[in-house]
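Worked problem 6 (solution included).
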Amino acid sequence: MAVAALHEALLAAAASFGVLEARAAPRDEERYSPLYLALTGDAHEDDTVYPLAIELIYEGYLLHYRESRVASPGGGQSTRLLAGDYLYARGLRLIAGDGDVAAVDLLTSLMAACSYFRVEGMEFACDDDIWAFTVAGLAALREGCPLEVPAATFARVEAAIVAGHRDEVSRLLREGAAALRLRDARPLEGYLAGFKAQAA
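Solution. The predicted structure is:
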């Protein structure tokens, strides 16, 4: 369902901007909504807002920095950026409509971190790790984890990069994931490199 809704949202973006050409069908399946659902389990099995919002925001990220799952190549860079902004905003609005200020704050931190990583020329593996960490953070927030816990990890990651210690980013994210105290962190193992060894 998330992919179909995602494709419809991008078609709306294409119509709005008049240049972006949508693929006839999504290129790939959902990326991070399955992780969110696995981490929240039965507690939020009927939740459709967060999985869709996560995929919309991720697609906005892809339009900004990587290869879109649903948009064909072409249409100028400015068009892709505007479409990415549209999908970012659409995803955030879904979560804001649910009244979850902490989740909006966390996702805003994620987008800022990804932008910073690109400016610094970090490997995309760092983006993937911080995406997985953020989705785990969203699941933790829904279970009562204070926003300060994942926010502290974002601060440590930024400080490490500023200090020239890029090689510490993955370790800091693993440690931050362990600090979330997820009920079952096993679904995160396939997304966040080395998390299993850190959590053991």
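Discussion: DSSP finds ten helices and no strands in the chain.
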